[in-house]
Design goal:
- The chain has about 350 residues and is α/β, with parallel strands linked by helices.
- The protein has two domains: about 200 residues, Glycoside hydrolase/deacetylase (TIM Barrel), CATH 3.20.20.370; about 70 residues, no CATH class.
- The strands form three sheets. Strands 1, 2, 3, 4, 7 and 10 form a six-stranded parallel sheet that branches. It has a two-stranded antiparallel ribbon with strand order 5-6.
- Strand 5 and strand 6 form a beta hairpin.
- It is globular and about 60 Å long.
Length: about 350
Amino acid sequence: MRRAILIVIAACFYYSGLVALARWWTSRSGPCLVLLNYHRAIGGDLRRQLLYLRRYYRLMHLEAALEELYPPHNDKQAVLDRRIPLVLTFDDGYCDNYTHAFALAKELQVPLAIYLIPGYLEKGGYFWWLERDHLVRCAKVHKVACDGRTYHLDSPTEQQALSAYIDTQARYASSVAAREAFLASMREKLQVSATVMQEDLPAMSLTWEQVHEMEQSGWVSFGAHTMNHPVLSAITDPAELEYEVTECHRVLEQRLGHPVRSLAYPIGQRQHISEDVANAVCRAGYSWAVTTSYGFNRPQTNPYLLNRIEVDVDQHWLVVAAEAAGLWGFFSRLRWVPFLRKHLTNAGDKGK
């Protein structure tokens, strides 16, 4: 029902000309860069979304777009294409980014940027934010006690509660070691093997071979997403914080053979990015860092707090059109339209 409502509203925006008007207004308001934030590449119609975006936006490689937004020494170059520059970014580096997004990038000739987590490229296995559903789904026990509460897994409500508990404990662990130890203990309690199930393979990490093939094509570039994807503001040891951003930078540059200039903060909302976190990213040698905070980017935007608009392949292309034009964000801020606020706020938020 909610999906149908969003599509109807987005269709009204598009066919009334409001989407085109928003694009025109944005382009007339000075230099602007739109960063779209995807994660998975299957489960929807990515092709139709890319066809729309390719027609109405100037799709660019991330580095070229950011150099245009922040020209060195204010050396601005004339741009003949007046369309708004837009970059397609994919966080985490799922296998389906190779099997689906990369295939479309080559076919449609559109550039992509993928933010990688070297720790998962090296070891494989489930990303920690997918463990909660995998563990609950594959549990071989009927009940489990955690922190003084017993969860009865024959109840869907109790399953959801256990899933939320696992996610919270993993998400806000004080270190990667603590997170991994917790997940290992939950696998033991629930009697779940760490072996990846066949149906879950598209949600596993890319391999280095796939990364190299994508980069050699010229259509895909890569950035850093930390070594192990912790919530950086939750890390209590400053040395571990430095390691997560610095070691990721070193490993990627070594593996790719060229400078890696941008990082995507894990989770990426402003409450997850303390001053210490931003300073560590700057010291590690990155030129830019992207968040998941909603908005466009202008020359005055902090290059270490770049905004992105979260979208998803399961959204109708009309919804993505409204997202890219900034209309969801605009109407969600109108407090005098409670219906729109209810259905539009974070309409595209699929982040972890």
